[in-house]
Hints:
The complex is a heterodimer.
Chain A: E1 6-10, H1 19-30, E2 34-37, H2 44-54, E3 58-63, H3 68-81, E4 88-93, H4 97-105, E5 110-112, H5 118-132
Parallel strand pairs in A: 1-2, 1-3, 3-4, 4-5
Chain B: H1 30-34, E1 57-58, E2 61-62, H2 67-79, E3 85-88, H3 91-94, H4 118-124, E4 135-138, H5 143-156, E5 166-168, H6 173-179, H7 186-203, E6 207-208, E7 210-213, H8 215-219, H9 224-244, H10 249-252, E8 256-262, H11 266-287, H12 293-296, E9 300-304, H13 316-330, E10 335-337, H14 350-365, H15 380-403, H16 406-412, H17 414-431, H18 458-473, H19 476-491, H20 497-505, H21 510-521
Parallel strand pairs in B: 1-10, 2-3, 3-4, 4-5, 5-6, 7-8, 8-9, 9-10
Amino acid sequence: MNPPIRVLVAKPGLDGHDRGAKVIARALRDAGMEVIYTGLRQTPEMIVTAALQEDVQVIGLSILSGAHNAIVPRVMDLLREKDMTDVKVIVGGIVPDEDAAALKQLGVAAVFQPGASLDAIVEFIRKSVLVAQP
Amino acid sequence: MAVAEKQHTTISGVPIEPLYGPEQLPGFDPQGQLARPGEFPYTRGIHQSMYRGRLWTMRQFSGFATPEETNRRYHYLLEQGQTGLSVAFDLPTLMGYDADHALSEGEVGKCGASISSLEDMEILFRGIPLGDVTVSMTINSPAAVLWAMYLAVAEQQGVDWKAVSGTLQNDILKEYIAQKEYIFPPRPSMRLVTDTIEFGTRHTPRFNPISISGYHIREAGSTAVQELAFTLRDGIEYVEWALERGLPIDEFAPRLSFFFNAHNDFFEEIAKYRAARKLWAYAMRDRFGAKEERSLKLRFHSQTAGCSLTWQQPYNNVVRTAVQALAAVLGGTQSLHTNSLDEAYALPSEQAVTIALRTQQILGYESGVTNTPDPLGGSYFVERMTLDTEQAALEYFRRIDEMGGMIAAIEKGFPQSEIANASYQYQRAVESREKLVVGVNAFQQEDQPIELLQIDQAAEAHQKTKLAALHARRDNGRVRKTLDTLRRAAEGTENTMPFILDAVRAYATLGEICDALREVFGSYQETAHV
């Protein structure tokens, strides 16, 4: 059997609304994954460093403040710099469709908007990690 | 759908009986227990005639981009018949950072108006007479600083502080519990709150120095009972600190105000507001010995539930908001904010906010629900729910008292864990379709895009340019001096408000003032409770 999938759930930016991040962290944990929750106000640098140290396969970013266009590209750049492009990045929160498309262009694996189902998120992570490690 | 097998519960998970009648209210005494509107314990409302005398204040929370743009929106809202203003600040302002701070990048003006100095506050209220319009400000950790800016603008307008009227949110406890926009650790934060309560009691008799808020607790996923219990227990904590400061209860208690969520479950919400008034009246009288009637009366603002709005089929949000607003009105609210249909996407467009305001006007002027106070009083169901809500809240009071009060409970992570559990359970219930959300897990369809407010990307640059010019123009020696004096005051036990006012008048920025306080008080890091 494969070892459990390791996920870093991170809350970047100044926003403190952590309801979504905590619900997701718990749902992934209930689905058998190993979840590290960073807590609030993480810079892209802190997030990527934590992802490296914790050796995660997935980073989940929760952003509700509209700051995703400033934050996510920096995370993607840092992952490239550190040669960590195999880490899947998923974004959850209030991200308009056109921004979501642009983030995917940058290499974000998926953007989950309000109303997304927990099961769909769990399934997506399982599938994308399986594809990455045949 | 298999309705017959479904368990009937409120959105908070409280089971509901098949029918309510006199057997659900044994020994219920309408005279003694309930009394009339305007009479202790005010379950039926704080005024004898309620909305027959005066409607609630229609107060739409608003702020975005620069103070210039927000000022234009305020003039528009006042022209549309809105009767009070309510300022939304952006995240850097809420966290005590100037627009040019590294952590502010990408966040300036996104969630509210960007205010870094007195100059921005002057622009925000340009052409708005602060002696006539009541203004509510949603600001917490740096509330003392923003309030000082507001009072300085009133001063410039020649308005006597005794005449300024409005509300400062200034409720730091719910930040640790729910919204998480904190800067300093709990105890120095409580000292700042107490400073503002004391200052307000002396200088601004018509201003509410605090709005003790359940709104954000509920938005974080709590149940209705948790919202009620944690909010009122926070209120008790503020009262204890003010008493400790030596303020007589009846001097400050009449200016304490509250802020509740208006969520989807109609009767549960109405019961919550009715129980809130009763619980507070008893707590003030029996726990603190308040004598003045005004000290016993719980006055509250309400806002419809942002977290209930759906991204899917956004026009349905108009209907949700109308139902929630009706609950707040039937629950006896003193002022109300109705959310706009597009708020699951963005800050509201002018068109969307106008519909939200019209919703209140239709309730107030067309529906007839204002014709008599507490029209649901005496309903078997509503009275039973009111009593049950009260009992459940008292049980939380007891547990928090046992822990040594709200700060101790927060340090243990108690309210945080209770809310996280409730929010996860609710999400699971939505996932399993035990709870239906129209357009999300039932009755889905393809969505058409809607027009959204676009926040000008130039806002950040504009704010930074203004700030640079201010740094060059102001008397930097005077700024340093006022900040040094403030630091010394913060190290001691004096009331910090006069020192903050001096710094603000010298055009010290929000970031500079908060940094001075950070040096003395330190910063808070929470232990995350997942």
